[in-house]
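Reproducibility note. Readers wishing to regenerate the assembly model reported in the main text can use the exact inputs given here. Chain order matters: entities are listed in the order in which they were concatenated for prediction.
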Amino acid sequence: MAWVTSAMSIGLILGPVSGGVIYQTHGYLAAFGLAFAFIGVDLALRIILVEKKIAVRYTVAPMPNAEESPSLQLHDLARPNEARLHESLTSPPTVAPAHNVWTSRIPTVIRILKYPRLLTALFLSFVQALILSAFDATLPLYLNALFGYSALQSGIKSPFSH
Amino acid sequence: MAIALPVLFISPLAGWLCDRSGPKVPAVGGLLFSVPFLILLRLPHASKDNEADQVAILCVILACLGTTLTFVIPPSMSEVALVLRERGSGEYGQAYGLFNVAFSGGFMVGPLWGGYVAQNAGWNVLVGSLAGLAGFSVVPVVIWTGGGIKLREMGPHFRCAFKWNRRSHTENPE
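Running the prediction on these inputs yields the following structure tokens for the assembly.
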């Protein structure tokens, strides 16, 4: 799971930098072209990916739902990273049992908000994104005021490029 | 890029630590250590004679800040999965939807906050306010992340996770 989050945060943070560089060097269309290319690759991978729910139909015995029992859950924790990564990539959309969603009259989105742990995690991500994006917006201007940097200069500024 | 580079290298390490010690340690550590670096960001100043020094100082502080903030990302995300797993509910899609709402909410508020404060009160106040925010958010993280203080047990991770799951199922079935 943590590998997924790492990959996602790398993408989120490298995105503006690479976008800025591509925009400066190859222009407006190239930046959008790259984005569309990535969407295309993503779509292809999603189509190729066989979901667990569908895969179960073709196995002899239905696979037990790993989220239901604590012992299986422990087994789940003990498995090697790759297996868990694969699991977390494939299973989240499929493990939601339909009755769980429909037995409660309150919408699930509201219902799961009552967990303080979840709220804290949401707040944590909010704070983290806020700090990062606050610098995204102000650091180039500040560098410009301080050292007279241009946008690209402050975009690619690193300990190595100076 | 001074922020982004350490993310590339430290992120897997942060994820490993998060898997190993639970989400509370890296989250609290990352937030606590980002406070001094945020405050230190006020140090670099414009000077004609030793500009390279100032830029180097700024880059080092930004790199440290990137490193500490990297330790905050994996816990906040895996915590969502851990909560749902602990409660036995499978609404991963909706929980991650909420997570995205919070994340992009931060990305929406951040530039506004940064712009307003930097323009009206100056850079020093901005980094001070961000440090205050990071320091303040340590409080709920210490209290709730990883299943509450009273349930927290350090020790071998797998045994700990099992005990902690069993207890939280029996003690507070919410």
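We highlight two features of this model. The CA atoms of residues 125 and 145 of chain B lie 29 Å apart. Residues 4-171 of chain B form one domain.
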